[in-house]
Amino acid sequence: MHPLLDGIRVVAFDLDGTLIDSVPDLAVAVDAALVDLGLAPAGEVRVRAWVGNGSLKLMERALADALGSTPTSDWLERGHQGFLGHYGRDPASRTRLYPGAREALDGLRARGLPLALVTNKPFAFIAPILEGFGLEKHFGLCLGGDSLPEKKPSPVPLLHVASHFQVVPEACLMVGDSRHDIAAGRRAGFRVLAVPYGYNHGEPVRDCGPDAVVESLAELV
Ligand SMILES: O=C(O)COP(=O)(O)O
Ligand SMILES: [Mg+2]
């Protein structure tokens, strides 16, 4: 077991960029929503840089890029609804688990550690994606970006995890790919482990102050 797991009683995982590479499906949905509005598609490379603050922010960034200016609330509403419709119809066919993710989740469960999923993605998309990978039973609690009044980098979702499992925050570990996961973990009083391969807007995640970085989640177990 990774030394950071010493004394840990609950592990909370981020989803996008940590367990799954979801950008190929996100990009198809973003592009379809842009095209519906008569705008040019953005492509996967640019969408990859816009993920991490939930679906509304994702579409705001995509529209700002396509329009060359901040979108009006009407454009944003139409673009966001378009994205939700397209993504909801096909949220996982191009999405892949990162190497080591399944081993880590299986290994932690085999050791009896409760797991939580804390993503900024809308809650409605979590189950279809996890079910696609047969991972829905691994998590005792799943929170989306719209499950609570605040999302990461707020500590609120992580504090909810700790209280749900009746464990002090110091006995919880947050595992994520972005500065939002690390900030949320720090503010909640969790230990924080980061992976370097996800979506952190080009900034090395090591520079965001995690307790440790692992190249593969398999190193956890
Ligand atoms: O939907 C997003 O913005 C990314 O969600 P994440 O919190 O799982 O990385
Ligand atoms: Mg992430």
UniProtKB/TrEMBL annotation:
GO MF, any single term: phosphoglycolate phosphatase activity
InterPro entries: HAD-like_hydrolase_sf, HAD-like_sf, HAD-SF_hydro_IA, HAD_sf, PGP-like_dom2, PGPase_prok
SUPFAM superfamilies recorded: HAD-like
GO BP term, example: DNA repair
Active-site residues per Swiss-Prot or TrEMBL entry: 14
Pathway(s) it belongs to: Organic acid metabolism; glycolate biosynthesis; glycolate from 2-phosphoglycolate: step 1/1
Cofactor: Mg(2+)
One Pfam family cited in the UniProt record for this chain: Hydrolase
Keywords for this protein: Carbohydrate metabolism, Hydrolase, Magnesium, Metal-binding
Catalytically driven reaction(s): 2-phosphoglycolate + H2O = glycolate + phosphate
Keyword Magnesium: yes
Binding site for Mg(2+): 14, 16, 177
PANTHER family for the chain: PHOSPHOGLYCOLATE PHOSPHATASE (PTHR43434)
Job description of the protein: Specifically catalyzes the dephosphorylation of 2-phosphoglycolate. Is involved in the dissimilation of the intracellular 2-phosphoglycolate formed during the DNA repair of 3'-phosphoglycolate ends, a major class of DNA lesions induced by oxidative stress.
Family, as annotated: Belongs to the HAD-like hydrolase superfamily. CbbY/CbbZ/Gph/YieH family.
Name of protein: Phosphoglycolate phosphatase
